[in-house]
Amino acid sequence: MFSKDRWEEILEALSANKFRTLLTAFGVFWGITILVLLLALVNGLKNGVTADFGNFATNSMFMWTQQTSISYKGLPKGRSYDYKIGDVEALKAEIPELKYVSPRLQLGGFNGANNVTHGTKTGAFQVNGDYPEYIKQQPMDITSGRFISYSDINAKRKSCVIGTDVVKGLYNKGENPLGTYVKINGVNFMVVGTFKASNSQGDQEEDANTIFVPFTAFAQAFNSGDDVGWMALTAQDGMSITDIKPKIFDIIKSRHNIHPDDDRAIGNFDLSEAFGRVNGLFSILGFVGYFVGSLVLMSGIIGISNIMLIVVKERTKEIGIRRALGASPWTIKSQILQESLLLTIASGMVGISFAAGIIWILNYVLDSSGPVENFANPSVSMSVVFIALFILVISGLLAGLIPANSATKMKPVDALRID
């Protein structure tokens, strides 16, 4: 039950030595500030790093061919092979857990530069032959027109979607590229859309220098037959591409006479697995943040406990008088605990507010100065605030428990004898 007299007495006791109280409260203030800031910085790092995955289907895998490392069925090791369009159809037919299987053909990039011209202007750009679903695996911002469609695929239409740096390199300022033609290795393609590279795990500058064309038109124009350069595979929602990967490898190995144990023959990058490792790393960092912050906070709590012991010793005679007048041990103990809780929670709340102010300033500076690589939006959730408050309450009780027990153990007669 609320007692005005009790709280006035508690406030008077804490304000009796203001400087000592402030120094004691500073330990808790600083500890909770460090705890919240550490967790915010960890979250900022996590946001910055995982933003690289944000525009990819995080349950995807990219797969390419490598030389075999084990001889098999009379075929030597070190043998090269190519994926075929039939592999794509087989994966779609035999693994219903796959949502998208996007084959790609490529000019430029790691296969060497290629010439793209428009009028009198020439540039070297990467050209990708893709299917329409690739935009669902790696979203991009279509700034005008559209992306390639299945009507383009079925008709083998020589259309293309060009990046912002391609527009800058081949077109005059203010010129509308839609409906115009670019010549790729001597073959004309009509521009049906433009796109802007979004945040992704890939190289944004390289993305902006990219041209997308229909897979079938690419194969026809550049005589690649039924070859496939590499594939992007995405699992159905709620399923893990990592779990499906062995089945994918088995089908590919069977179709290309690769030894069942020769995993080196299939190059792959499992984005889901990588994303899981990153999340695991930041879970550990979050734990470290809690651990280090709690240790700093604990030093402040120990300071409060020591000061409360001193306060109890200074008020020994007062406690003895109150006991002699009939105050119960619990009445004495509850007052000491309330003083400890008030000091802990008040200083802790100021620390949380101070940390929130620093976080706000950090975000303001980041918004004003532009994005910082691998660091974005340092923040803490409300759950962290509630956890901090819970820690403060428990810490306040622990800080006052030893002094409170000490105050109630002394007999009233002994307390009254102390000068």
Compile the SSE list and pairings.
Elements: H1 4-15, H2 18-54, E1 60-65, E2 83-84, H3 85-94, E3 98-107, E4 115-118, E5 121-124, E6 126-130, H4 134-137, E7 141-145, H5 150-155, E8 159-163, H6 164-170, E9 181-184, E10 187-196, H7 204-208, E11 210-214, H8 215-221, E12 227-228, E13 230-235, H9 241-255, E14 266-270, H10 271-314, H11 316-324, H12 329-369, H13 382-409, H14 412-417
Parallel strand pairs: 6-11, 8-10
Antiparallel strand pairs: 1-13, 1-14, 2-12, 3-6, 3-13, 4-5, 4-9, 7-10, 8-11, 9-10
Helix pairs in contact: 1-12, 2-10, 2-12, 2-13, 10-12, 10-13, 12-13
Alpha carbon gyration radius: 34 Å
Order of H and E elements: HHEEHEEEEHEHEHEEHEHEEHEHHHHH
Cα(first) to Cα(last) distance is 34 Å
Tally of strands:
14
Structure annotation, total helices: 14
Query: Can you give the helix content as a percent range?
Result: 55-70%
Q: Structural class given helices, strands, pairing?
A: alpha+beta
Beta-strand residue fraction: 15-25%
Which quaternary structure do these chains form?
Answer: single chain
Compute the average pLDDT: 81
| General form | elongated
As for the number of domains, it is 2
**pLDDT below 50 for ≥5 consecutive residues: which ranges?**
none
Domain ABC3 transporter permease C-terminal: 291-412
Subcellular location: Cell membrane
Transmembrane segments: 21-42, 287-312, 341-362, 382-402
Membrane topology: Multi-pass membrane protein
